[in-house]
């Protein structure tokens, strides 16, 4: 089932001489292909059980199903976050009750700003192989320090393991630009237009 999204786009790129790299031309092509794709977050998470994990790693990308704490009072939330974790967290003295992590949910940005943030983050990868060894050297200190990363602010979310509704679906670095533009967000209590408007207000 993973083939129904990632593999066909990667294969199409290879046929036209395009490989998933950090170069802007490559990134732009794969993002544009993804934006034209009809996709389902639920199907993607269920597509390959070998990719599922219970512990997300800092600087990698994951998709998962989530039911947030206090959702009744939230103005809106994303049922299927696409996240780059950057810090572990606990909300109480008991890690088992409050364990989780902070991450950047890229769905909170419109596509243009999503691309700008990702392009800036690519400057902080540990290598340019775009394979399982590749990760972003991500931290809150870095995000705050670097002016080109200013788009991160509305994306910062805390996720509790106790409110997960699926395991974490690992997205390989060569697939990052595809996942980035896939229409798989599912915002509750507000539409995308409302979410993006508020995100822009936070940024600017």
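Sequence proposed for the structure above (204 residues):
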């Amino acid at each position: 089932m993973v083939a129904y999204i990632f593999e066909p786009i990667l294969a199409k790129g290879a046929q036209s001489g395009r490989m998933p790299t950090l170069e802007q031309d490559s990134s732009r092509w794969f993002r544009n292909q993804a934006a034209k794709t009809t996709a389902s977050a639920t199907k993607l998470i269920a597509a390959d059980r070998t990719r599922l994990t219970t512990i997300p790693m800092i600087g990698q990308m994951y998709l998962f199903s989530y039911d947030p704490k206090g959702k009744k009072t939230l103005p809106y939330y994303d049922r299927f976050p696409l996240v780059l974790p950057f810090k572990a967290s606990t909300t109480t003295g008991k890690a088992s009750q409050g364990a989780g992590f902070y991450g950047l949910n890229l769905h909170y940005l419109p596509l243009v700003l999503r691309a700008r943030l990702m392009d800036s983050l690519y400057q902080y990868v540990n290598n340019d192989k775009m394979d399982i060894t590749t990760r972003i050297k991500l931290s809150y200190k870095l995000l705050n320090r670097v002016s080109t990363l200013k788009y991160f602010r509305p994306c910062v979310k805390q996720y509790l393991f106790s409110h997960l509704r699926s395991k974490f679906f690992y997205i390989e670095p060569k697939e990052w630009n595809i996942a980035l533009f896939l229409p798989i967000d599912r915002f509750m209590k507000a539409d995308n237009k409302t979410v993006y408007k508020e995100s822009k207000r936070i940024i600017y």
